[in-house]
Each structure stands twice: as C-alpha cells, then as structure tokens.
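can u do me a favor
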C-alpha cells in the first residue's frame, strides 16, 4: 500500500523498520470505524477474538497465560548514564540495549503485517498534545489504540511534511515460518521481553509482550516515561493521575488530580458518584494528567488519552456504576470469563454467573475454586461513552487544578486522610507514599513498597531529580499551587474488615478537602499533617460508630517511627542527588514524630 504521508522522517523510519523486521505486508491505519470493524472480523475469524452477543460491537480476547500485566523487571530507561535513570529504574547503555534489541527485531515480523498507527495524545492540534507513531505487528494493539488514542489520517495531516513525532516500535516477538500456524496470542518468553525507552532521543522500543502498558505505547511509555523527561526539560508535569471535576451544592467547581499506584483506585475515584446530597462529580481522565502553567498562573491539566484501560475485576453497579455504563458497547475485554450467554463476567461484578469459559480458555463454573477472570483483566472503552464525562474533557486549555491527592493501598498505619502543611511537605508526602502490591505488574514481590507519586514504574529519569522538579514547580506556582492531601481507602480492622466503605463515600473526603481549600474548616495539626477536627468531617447517614471512625483516623506514632529506618534507607539510595529540600523535610518529619 502506498504511504498516505509525505513526512520524510516518518517514511524513512517505516522503511528502516520494514527492512529490519521483514514483515510480509505494510499497512497504514486510517483510524476509521470501517477499519476497526474489519480488524475485529479478521481476529474473530482467526480465533483471536470472541464477539460478545450480549454487548453491541464488543469483543473478548484471551492473552497468553504468561503475558497478563506490565513487566517492571523487563522495563528499561536507557539514558546516557545510569545516574540519569536513577536507582529505581533498570538501566542499560543505550547502544548496548539497541544492539541486543536489533538482534531480536531482525526478521521478527516475518509472516505478519506491519501496522503503522499515527496517533495523538491529547486533542489533535492542541498546543499540549503530542503526536506519536506506533509500528506494531499486533492487530489487537491496533484496535486498542483506536480507543485509547486519536488515530489516523487526521494525525498525519497535523504532522505534515516536517512535523515531529515520537517513534514507538513494537513487536510481539513471534515471527511465523512459512506455513506455520499462528497462535491466538503470540508473544515472546519473559527473558526476551524488553520495554525500552531512550529518553535522550524520545524513542520507544518494545519487544515480546502484547499486553497493556507493555504494548499500547502511547500510555505508560510515551505519556509518562518519555513525557516526564520532556516535561521536566520544558517546565511542565506528566503524572500518573486521574482528573475530576467536583461541583458543590452551591455550584462551585473544584478540579482534583489524584495519584494512586496501579490498581489502587484512580478509575473508581475518577467516576465517583458522591453519596452526599448536592455534590456531583465529572470525569476528565482516569490514569494520566499532563499539566502546564496557564496564562493565569494556575496549573491546567489535560487527559492525553481518549479511552479507559480499566481494571475489570471488582467493577460493579455498586462500586463503579459509571464504568459499568461506559462498557455497555463498543468495548474490548481482555482475560475475563465469557459466559454461556455470550457476555463477559468477572469476580465481584455483582451479577450471578452460571459459568462459561475462563480467561485461560477452560470450562469454568463459579464454584470451581479458581478465579474465572485474571485479577488484571481489563476493559478498553471510549471515554466519551462515560455518562459523567466532563463536557470540558477535551478542552485543549485543560482544567485548573485546585487539589492534588496522593495515596496508596495500606491495610495498616495510614489514616483515611491528612493534609500537607505546605507544598514542600506535600512533595514529601507524595515522595514517601507506599503501597501494597496489586496484579497490575507481574513481578512486584515486596509486601509494601515506596511508590513516589505513583510514578515508581513510570518516571523516565532519576526520581531525586523528579522531586526537585516538583519543588521547582511549587516555586513557579507560588500561592496558586494546588493544596496537597494524602488518602488511604484501604485501612483494615484487626479482624480484616475494611474500615472505610470507599467508592461513592469517598466524596465525603473530597468535601472536607474542598472546605479546607476554602478555609471553611481549620482541621487540627498532627505530627503527620492536618486532619479533620472534631465534627468537621461529614459522616451524616453513614452507619459508622465513633470507635470505628477513631480507628480509621488513628495516628499511631510508634508505627510511623518504626518506618523511619526504611525511610532513611530509601532516601539514601539517591545519594548526593537527593534535593536539600527533601532532606529538610525528612528532618522536620522526624522532629515532629519526636524522634
Ligand atoms: P490502573 O489502571 O492500574 O492505573 O489502576 P487504577 O488506579 O485506575 O485502579 P482502579 O480504580 O481500577 O482500582 C482497582 C482496585 O481498587 C479494584 O479492585 C477496586 O475495587 C479497588 N478500589 C477502588 N476504589 C476503592 C475504594 O474506595 N475502596 C476499596 N476498598 N477498594 C477500592
Ligand atoms: C497501570 O498499570 O498503571 C495501568 C495499566 O494503568 S497498564 O496500561 O497496563 O500500564
Ligand atoms: Mn495506570
């Protein structure tokens, strides 16, 4: 097929990759619904996809059992020096990594088609948007990118002859010999998987995996790892944050951006249905925020994505009704149960299931003892289908952020909510956030790990420099900087029950934050930060005893002190690169704890 572009760099790059990967065909994606339908038909015919009779225009895919989540041990930041990548990233010298990967890419698309996917992160033409072009040999990636990004001819038009783009090379790493039968989910074994980033030249090379953030390269690879490097250079922020608009009964709007680690509640909070009367919430984004200081000096956020790639298990009409409505049609499901009736199902979906075929392709009934859906099963759905999508979600200027929230999944120690004493303390709170592992990454073993600003797997440079960038942004924003809070929805009682009902009730926590922002309530100072004073927090109508509330909010100084050695070790790994302001925060934190 003739290339639908005159962009010289793009043509040269596609030529180079074609010569290296030797596909049978080259196909340029136009982004049309006809193209989407054609690809789906082909994948259903080949056995890779199942069409769901119960959901219009929706399909289910089963991945290979080994290819079910991000692989952090196989993710690399190949900056010029190891120090620039920092102690939290895997590093290989760029030329060495390229040599290894060129060896793998050589001939890797034999028997397959090379798809060229021009895509835009952010509304096409927006000054904040960035254009990427993904080359892939996975038709599953093509259809997902159709939903997750803005794909096609419109992007090539915006690119023109000389426009710049971020090249994203992807192969599942499974060439086919002549006559060899393809499998339903081709991929390479773990030791051959590489998710590689070359931040000095804004280049992404991914090999061997077809799943999620490993393969949909606009998301974590471009919009976080590469964008975080560009953002620091240019003075803006690329964060692993949801964006929402909360409106008070008086009609006042608050825009909130929240960073929780993977599978720790961003999608759920982004689509919140507040239970408290008069408060409403609209979703701007559920995973990534790009933020720049606007002409008015305030931080403005856009969602660079066009769809949701959300955790399926646990999603129900009770926990997240807006997500349930979003995925009624035109959606892709991966690694769920396909029921005998031709619908999808997963654990805690809140509807009964008589049985069907599990994520591995085996017959399954609810009593089987094994989970039917993989814990990291996901849905891919267009953001515009969300009933509470914010009317301004595609405003190229973004929404002005009033509040930042950090958080993590901690069954112990961390209270429901506390507020930073000032910007620098807020940066410290984000920097020291810790969370228990989830199914979103295959290879995270620690029972609890620090996940700074929920960016541990996504920061494309040295985390110490990233913190300095946060301090610098605070200086630039001055009095217009968002207020910073920390939440934990996941605290449990000694007998293992959730202390906080979460989901729609989380609106109560946001309400207290808004009232703090307006100075309507004062809170009370504790060694870890400001917390609601007696009577300030709206518990109206919640069946919660005073004892339960006290347990949820309890600050056990002994437990916080017991973590100081770990805090010192954590900070020490950054050596002399650790910002002086972070050292000062550690010192004053210890002092407040009475250490
Ligand atoms: P990524 O897409 O991986 O970045 O994750 P995410 O942060 O968007 O996570 P998501 O909202 O999908 O939440 C994943 C898990 O957290 C699901 O099992 C949810 O049921 C659970 N969860 C979300 N919010 C709450 C809450 O308020 N309380 C409790 N107990 N669980 C929650
Ligand atoms: C995450 O792991 O934070 C995700 C899912 O949002 S993935 O796109 O696979 O990275
Ligand atoms: Mn995420």
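np, heres the sequence
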């Amino acid at each position: 097929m003739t290339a639908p572009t005159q962009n010289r760099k793009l043509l040269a790059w596609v030529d180079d990759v074609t010569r290296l990967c030797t596909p049978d065909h080259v196909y340029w994606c136009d982004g049309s619904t006809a193209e989407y339908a054609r690809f789906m038909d082909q994948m259903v015919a080949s056995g890779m996809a199942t069409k769901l009779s119960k959901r219009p225009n929706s399909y289910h895919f089963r991945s290979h059992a080994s290819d079910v989540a991000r692989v952090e041990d196989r993710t690399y930041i190949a900056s010029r020096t190891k120090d620039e990548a920092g102690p939290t990233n895997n590093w290989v010298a760029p030329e060495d990594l390229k040599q290894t990967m060129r060896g793998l890419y050589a001939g890797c698309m034999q028997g397959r088609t090379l798809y060229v996917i021009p895509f835009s992160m952010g509304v096409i033409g927006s000054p904040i948007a960035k254009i990427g072009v993904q080359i892939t040999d996975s038709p599953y990636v093509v259809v997902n990118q159709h939903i997750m990004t803005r794909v096609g001819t419109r992007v090539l038009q915006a690119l023109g002859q000389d426009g710049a783009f971020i090249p994203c090379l992807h192969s599942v790493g499974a060439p086919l010999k002549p006559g060899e039968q393809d499998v339903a989910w081709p991929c390479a074994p773990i030791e051959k998987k590489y998710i590689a980033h070359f931040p000095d030249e804004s280049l992404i090379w991914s090999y061997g995996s077809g799943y999620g953030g490993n393969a949909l390269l606009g998301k974590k690879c471009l919009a976080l790892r590469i964008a975080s490097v560009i953002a620091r250079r240019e003075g803006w922020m690329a964060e692993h944050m949801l964006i929402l608009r909360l409106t008070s009964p008086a009609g006042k709007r608050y825009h909130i951006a929240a960073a929780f680690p993977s599978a720790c509640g961003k999608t759920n909070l982004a689509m919140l249905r507040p239970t408290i009367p008069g408060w409403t919430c609209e979703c701007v984004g559920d995973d990534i925020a790009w933020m720049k200081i606007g002409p008015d000096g305030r931080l403005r956020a856009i969602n660079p994505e066009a769809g949701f790639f959300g955790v399926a298990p646990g999603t129900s009409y009770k926990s997240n009704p807006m997500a349930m409505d979003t995925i009624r049609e035109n959606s892709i499901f991966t690694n769920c149960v396909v029921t005998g009736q031709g619908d999808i199902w997963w654990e805690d979906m809140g509807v009964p299931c008589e049985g069907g075929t599990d994520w591995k392709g085996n017959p399954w009934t609810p009593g089987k003892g094994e989970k039917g859906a993989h814990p990291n099963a996901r849905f891919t759905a267009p953001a515009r289908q969300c009933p509470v999508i914010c009317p301004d979600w595609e405003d190229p200027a973004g929404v002005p952020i009033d509040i930042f929230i950090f958080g993590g999944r901690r069954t112990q120690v961390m209270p429901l909510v506390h507020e930073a004493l000032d910007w620098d303390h807020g940066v410290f709170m984000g920097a020291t956030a810790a969370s228990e592992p989830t199914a979103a990454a295959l290879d995270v073993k620690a029972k609890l790990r620090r996940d700074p600003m929920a960016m541990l797997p996504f920061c494309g440079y040295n985390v110490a420099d990233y913190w300095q960038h946060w301090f610098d942004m605070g200086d630039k924003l001055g009095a217009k900087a968002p207020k910073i809070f920390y939440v934990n929805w996941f605290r449990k009682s000694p007998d293992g029950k959730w202390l906080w009902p979460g989901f729609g009730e989380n609106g109560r926590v946001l309400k207290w934050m808004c009232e703090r922002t307006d100075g309507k309530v004062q809170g009370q100072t504790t060694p870890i930060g400001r917390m609601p004073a007696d009577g300030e927090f709206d518990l109206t109508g919640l069946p919660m005893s005073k004892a339960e509330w006290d347990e949820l909010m309890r600050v056990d100084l002994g437990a916080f002190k017991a973590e100081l050695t770990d805090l010192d070790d954590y900070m020490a790994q950054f050596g002399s690169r650790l910002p002086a302001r972070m050292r000062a925060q550690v010192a004053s934190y210890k002092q407040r704890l009475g250490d």
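Residues 70, 212-213, 219-220, 262, 287, 309, 440 surround sulfopyruvate (ligand 2) (CB under 6 Å). hope that helps!!
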